[in-house]
Specification:
About 10% of the residues lie in helices and about 10% in strands. The protein is mostly loops. The chain has a domain of about 60 residues.
Length: about 100
């Protein structure tokens, strides 16, 4: 068994996790197939997006939509899916992500 500090306490490990997880996007913004309407349907604005604790929580959360095949999956805040549902209480001015 390996031991050490929690991975989210080490900047180098957080960067490695981010690099690894960012390759698993459902919707890639750099793709020619990315549609303009998807910018407003990013996970960060979804009522089913549950942010992780910082520092990973600044960029990542978990999908909690039981109807979505992404339910329980860690998602990048700027990713999205066809099961998006607007979080009407989202306030970009007070968001921590």
């Amino acid at each position: 068994m390996k031991t050490g500090d929690r991975v989210d306490t080490r900047e180098d490990e957080v960067r490695t996790i981010h690099d690894r997880w960012s390759k698993r996007l459902n919707r890639d913004q750099s793709s020619a197939q990315y549609r303009d309407e998807w910018y407003g349907e990013q996970c960060l604005h979804c009522r089913f997006y549950v942010p992780l604790e910082p520092p990973l929580g600044f960029d990542y959360g978990v999908c909690a939509n039981f109807e979505s095949p992404l339910d329980g999956r860690v998602m990048f805040e700027h990713d999205g899916s066809d099961w998006f549902a607007l979080n009407e209480g989202y306030d970009a001015d007070t968001a921590t992500s």
